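Journal club side-thread
Mid-discussion, someone asked how the predicted structure for our own chain would compare to the paper's figures. Pasting it here so we can look after the session.
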Amino acid sequence: MIKTFTSKKAKKYLSKATSPSVSSESDSNKSPSKEPKKAEKNTTNKLEELKLKLAKAKREYAEEAKLHKRATPQEKKSPGPKKKRTKTEGDAALRDPMARAEYDEEREKYEKQGKWLVYTDGSGKGSSGYGVFFGHDHKLNASEPLPSTCEKHTANAAELHALLHVFQVVPETQPIVIRPDSIYAFHTVTEWMRGWKAADWQKPDGEVPANLDIVKQLDELWTDTREENTTFIWVESHAGNFGNASADIRAKQGAIKAPKVWSKEKKKTTKE
């Protein structure tokens, strides 16, 4: 085996190799080194600490699993039918105390400024619905399907309808901060809508804008006063934001309601 030494180590090694071995009574009477025992004891203590931390983590996980009805590792190993993930199961942010605390802090900040904070979202997988979240147990929260009369039942249409709901329930004089996760909905209201209207509801390429039925309703409510009192702040979807996750789950729940609501609307129209 080849060993590589530094210059100091090399000198020390050579001096030991060339010097005669001298043993004395004092050396022989010395007690054996306690370093190995200390190292062994430290290693044992570290292993015990790791075992305690692992046991604590398992207990905490089991407690959290009971609260949120998740399967623990032990339950996952047991045989039986697999539990399907429901469409309305909440985002991880809904179970995160830190995410909720950040949301409460954000809402409190705007309330001190006299502003309402609202998150909006739309869901368009299969059937379409929208969600609006003003806060915990707020009376203006919404989870509804798109009306059957809408021209299109898509996620974009649902995103616009969520904003329409906000405009319908919030007075135009009330300062408000709206946080959609749809760039399409964000730009439709803040930039594109007025340009389309000025061009007789046409886009620069001559095409008719999508979801024009909802866009026209938004335009009627987007007054100068409302624009002055409204702030739009885009939020990234599914990125651990409690407000966004709360709007998202309401949008999915609204979409699930759609078939029943549409069936009732159809029956009502038939009778009339």
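Post-session note: The domain at 96-271 is CATH 3.30.420.10 (Nucleotidyltransferase; domain 5).
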